[in-house]
Amino acid sequence: MTAVQERRAASPIPSETDYNTLAKTFRPIFSDIAEGVVQRERDHVLPYEQIDALKKAGFGAIRVPTSHGGFGASIPQLFRLLVELAAADSNVTQALRGHFAFVEDRLVAAEGVDRDLWLQRFVEGQLVGNAWTEIGDVALGEANTKVSPSPDGDHFLANGAKYYSTGSIFADWIDLYSQRTDTGAFVIAAVDARQPGVTHSDDWNGFGQQTTGSGTSTYENAVVRPENIFDFSTRFKYQTAFYQLFHLATLAGIARAATDATAARVAARTRTFSHGNAPTYAQDAQIQQVVGEVSAAAHAAEAIAIHAAEPAQWAYEAAFGSDPDEEKAANIAAEIASARGQIASTSLVVPATAKIFDALGASGVDRCWGLDRFWRNARTVASHNPVVFKAKVVGDYEINGTEPTYVWAIGTARNDTEDQS
């Protein structure tokens, strides 16, 4: 048995029975969330109540060990649950993306009072939002958002603005990517989201994911305690893969919900076409074929999401080991698996959510059904991290053995003709 196998044998992924027990706790809440999803989409109502129900049920502590009061779920179990949640409302899954990434970072942090305090906060229901993407003309690889020591040296002050502040409008804390003015180091500042120096705006203008609250957040001398400044170089190493797994779970949930909604509309339809293939619409073989193809895409997308999460569990376990080669191999596996998953799921789910209208005719585009949300949300999710770059990364790895880029950024590209001195 290899060192990797020994490590995994010592920390097995919990059984299917454990997952069903876990899922039963949250499925009634998922059902309630699904009830109003069409109206929230239509009227642009942010899911404050729905996220609050998840908070009170302890959903944010899914990954916290049972020894610290959480549910102790594995990474694959977390993403299975997120597929179910995304089937109810994919925007809620997206809104929680930053929270679970910050939880993961605290899970692999050094043991101690500070780590335990964060785990306790998660168990109490406190949520964390995400604010990394700069607004405006920021150079690639730089951060305009700064944290500076206060004049008395007692704390830090955060100043700047972020876009795509996913989940921050619902959160108690914000995972703020920034740069220290005293040392120049890039850091994560855990910012109290409800202090006077922090402002949230619901100004995300995308045609999909309209109720994720992923708009602008601004920071004007927002106070950050010294113990809540984390050097970015210590961030958990499989973070990019982990973030991408959220998109895979979201796509899978969208496809599942699209299948269910389309099948229900076909089954309820009383009108048919004179040039159809059966006396009732639900018995028409061609319509059945369309729904079957969408269902197959949903099934495949869910399998991809769950399978892609397994290397991330290995990377999590390897983070506690003493073998740097194993940890490196696990991190590469996690990144490549999530990239492959994005390529495959995008090619399945985006077309499938457009195909549903082939099964419904013109009545399917009635705004009252809100069926367009599936394509809009899927297309938006699939656009966050350009899939063409993921395909390039996987291809380079397969051909040349090139390691993937673990952390990437977006910004204004530097002109190659500029003075490089």
TrEMBL record:
* Protein's GO biological process: L-leucine catabolic process
- Domain named Acyl-CoA dehydrogenase C-terminal is located at 249-385
Q: Which UniProt keywords apply?
A: Monooxygenase, Oxidoreductase
Please give one Gene Ontology molecular function term for this protein: flavin adenine dinucleotide binding
In its keyword annotation, does this UniProt entry include Nucleotide-binding?
A: no
Q: Where in this chain does the record put each Acyl-CoA dehydrogenase/oxidase N-terminal domain?
A: 33-104
User: What protein name is recorded for this chain?
Assistant: Monooxygenase
